[in-house]
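Customer escalation, tier 2.

The customer says the design service returned an amino acid string that "doesn't look like it belongs to this structure." They asked us to rerun it and document both sides in this ticket. The original structure tokens are below, unchanged.
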């Protein structure tokens, strides 16, 4: 669903192919996807690990030694999950946009509606990780380690682009990047907040998300006042970093040893 109208999007399309390169037409790539999907079924028990990959190999009639097909180890499994979620989100948001009535499309131009759409899109994406929430701190730790962090940054950026594009963003130049970077900051802080949220339906996290997005909208309204905008941007950054630190301190993920 990703368009090739921007160099960044063309680059993102290469992420998933990195560990799904085909050595014999489509068969090798398809087999790797099957193994990765099977491995995800073992994450709850084995975590984001080569052991989960080994089980995925066995379920596809291969020896455990076939994990060598994935040079990134558990990192490949994390990247596969994140990229798959992005693809599902793109499809979901596109379908929702098609169902929107003319009246709703007319009203969607308001800033308030944009904020609501951003919140809904981020919630949809984060809810995809809920089945793995207990092991997600480990996935985040693996994704933060070099060289895996490069793919993590790219897949997160891809997600922000999917959200903005489906909302109807037509910005270009520096604004194109700043919008996605700012939304990425909010997304990451909300993701960390979700790890420690035990409220019914994770409502505390979604309220937190709404608050950060309102701060983001407030900063946008102050773009013509450089001094004031700097204060708001600083406040947004400090609040999100503070939330991230609290969540990180309460979660001590076990990083898989290689």
């Amino acid at each position: 669903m990703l368009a090739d109208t921007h160099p960044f999007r063309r680059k993102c399309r290469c992420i998933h192919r990195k560990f799904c390169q085909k050595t014999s037409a489509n068969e090798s790539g398809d087999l790797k996807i099957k193994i990765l999907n099977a491995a995800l079924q073992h994450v709850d028990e084995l975590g984001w690990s080569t052991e989960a990959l080994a089980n995925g190999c066995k379920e596809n009639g291969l020896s455990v030694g076939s994990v060598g097909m994935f040079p990134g180890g558990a990192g490949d499994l994390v990247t596969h999950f994140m990229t798959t979620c992005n693809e599902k989100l793109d499809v979901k948001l596109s379908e929702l946009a098609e169902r929107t009535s003319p009246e709703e499309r007319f009203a969607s131009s308001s800033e308030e509606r944009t904020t609501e759409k951003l919140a809904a899109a981020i919630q949809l994406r984060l809810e995809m990780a809920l089945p793995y929430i207990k092991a997600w701190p480990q996935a985040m730790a693996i994704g933060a380690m070099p060289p895996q962090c490069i793919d993590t940054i790219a897949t997160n950026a891809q997600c922000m682009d999917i959200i903005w594009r489906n909302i109807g963003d037509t910005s270009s130049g520096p604004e194109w990047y700043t919008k996605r970077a700012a939304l990425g900051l909010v997304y990451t802080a909300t993701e960390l907040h979700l790890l420690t949220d035990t409220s019914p339906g994770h409502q505390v996290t979604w309220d937190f998300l709404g608050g950060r997005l309102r701060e983001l909208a407030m900063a946008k309204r102050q773009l013509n006042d450089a001094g004031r905008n700097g204060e708001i941007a600083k406040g947004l950054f400090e609040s999100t970093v503070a939330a991230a630190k609290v969540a990180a301190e309460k979660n001590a993920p076990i990083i898989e040893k290689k």
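Tier 2 assessment: The sequence is consistent with the input. The chain has two domains: 27-71, 79-250. The CA atoms of residues 50 and 73 lie 6 Å apart. Sent an explanation to the customer and offered a walkthrough call.
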